[in-house]
Structure formats: structure tokens, C-alpha cells
Amino acid sequence: MSLTAALAYARHGVPVLPVHTPDLRGTCSCDRGVRCDRPGKHPRLRHGLTEASTDPRLIEMWWTRWPAANIGLRTGIVMDVADIDSAEGWHGLTHLLGGSLPAGPRVRTGGGWHLWFRPTGFGNRVHLLPGLDWRGVGGYVVAPPSRHARGGDYRWVRRPGDEPPGVPAALRALIEGPSPVDVVRTPIAHPGRYARAALTAEAERVAGAPVGSRNDTLNRAAFALGRLVGAGLLDPGDVLRELDRAARFAGLGRVEVRRTIRSGLTAGRRMPIDAVPGRTPLLRA
Ligand SMILES: [Zn+2]
Prior knowledge:
The chain is α+β, with helices and mostly antiparallel strands. The protein folds into two domains: 2-177, 2-Layer Sandwich (Prim-pol fold), CATH 3.30.2250; 185-269. 40% of the residues lie in helices and 14% in strands. It contains ten helices and nine strands. The strands form two sheets. Strands 6-7-3-5-4-9 form a six-stranded antiparallel beta sheet, covered by helices on one side. Strands 1-2-8 form a three-stranded antiparallel beta sheet. A hairpin with a 2-residue loop joins β6 and β7 (132-135). α1 packs antiparallel against α2, α7 (214-230) runs antiparallel to α8 (236-250) and α8 (236-250) runs antiparallel to α9 (254-269). The longest helix is centred in the last third of the chain and has 17 residues, at 191-207. The protein starts with a helix and ends with a helix. The structure holds zinc ion (ZN). Residues 20, 28, 30, 32, 36, 38-39, 42 line the site of zinc ion.
């Protein structure tokens, strides 16, 4: 049954690879057995994904050797896959797409769903939303009728027809954008976002500064933001406008505010923040 399905995927142009199989208790067929941290989800072949094939003779050979092998399908060629592993991921994606999910091919997995889409050309992305990953170029998914470590089989909710649906714009923007994980680890790698956040934070600090430290706070803010202006990450007009509004809100006088902002900005622009070496996104944002 597993071989028949594997051959059918291959006939539709999807490269197939044999994957390890969990037993009824969820123990992996690999050498690590109960200690395996990805039971039933990792390739049986030494070179893994790179050996995935549409060659029926090869596929028959593999499934003769491992008749119960789970079926891995290479993504990024015929389809990309939205990999939802929780109810939270389901609700998050549904909300993102305006209340309903596209009526494309859909697989029920152990604890979630796989939604098939036309390939985007992008690679894998993790944590697009809580409970949502993306499998694209260089990735693979486990497909029906494979067995899941949590018990039960991967099964079709809706089988593939002619061609999977295209990726909706909102989802595509998420795939193209910076990963939230990257932002947390290296905020400066996405400097446009970082700079806008800095502008908001500094303006709030100025607006809330207590009497006696207002002018000093304003000066520091103008200097810090001037460094971002100097690096080309913020528009000086935006900084002037935001800080002016915040400082006036704090109760500072107009002439004093302008003078302080200009002097802080000028000094900051002479010391632009450093580009992080080797990080091209800094130049693009
Ligand atoms: Zn294993």
C-alpha cells in the first residue's frame, strides 16, 4: 500500500524518499529507537533528502527493502506545504487569511494539518506563526498513508486535483518577511523595523520624561536616533516631527525643543551605527 502510494506521487512528479516508521507505541524504526527525537519523520537514506527520486525502479527497490517505510515527499517542486502542528497554528493561519483556508489539498497529520500550495520558490521557514512552519525548496513532508508516532495515519482530508492553489498574498508576505526568530536573535539584521521601533520608543521616553530631565532625555533621544539617520535607516524629518511632538507633550518650549533636537541629531549623524559585517539585509532594508 505504501509502495503503491509512493509510485503514484512519483508519477505526478513529486520526488519520494523512504522515511523511518514508528511502531504502535511510537518507537522509531531507527537505531535510536525510543530515544529518537523525530520518530517516523527522518529519512532512511544516508544522504537524506538529496536522494529523493521519481524513478520507479529505485522506489520499488527501497520499498522492497523497507515495505513499511513512511513516505517522504520533497517540497518546492510540485508543491510547498504549510505545516500546521497545533490548533493555535490553524486558528492563526485562518485569521491571517481572513477567516477561511484555501480549498486545496489537505492532510490530517498526528496533531495538525498539511496544506499544499503551488511552489513559492522560497525555502523552509519555521515559526511563521505559533504552530505554523513552511516547507519549500530543500524541504520535505511525510505524506499519507504514513504512520504517525502519536498513533494513527497521515490521511487525506482533501486529495490533490490538478494543481494546488497559489499562496494567498498575506501568507506570502509572511514567508518573504523576516522570521520572528531572526528578529529576536539579531534585531539589527532587520534595521528598518529596528529603526522604526527605536523611534517609537525614544519618542515615548521623551513624552514621559519628568520635569528636570526632560531636556537631557530629549538630547539623548535625538542623538541615538541621529545615529540611525546617519546610517540611512530613518528620515531626519520623521525624527524631528516625532521628537518635537513628544517634547511639546512633555511641556518643553518650542524654541528650546528645536534647538536640542537639531544639536542631538547633528552629533548622532556624525556617528552612524555600524553595519553588521557580512549582513546584506542591513543594506537592503
Ligand atoms: Zn528515528
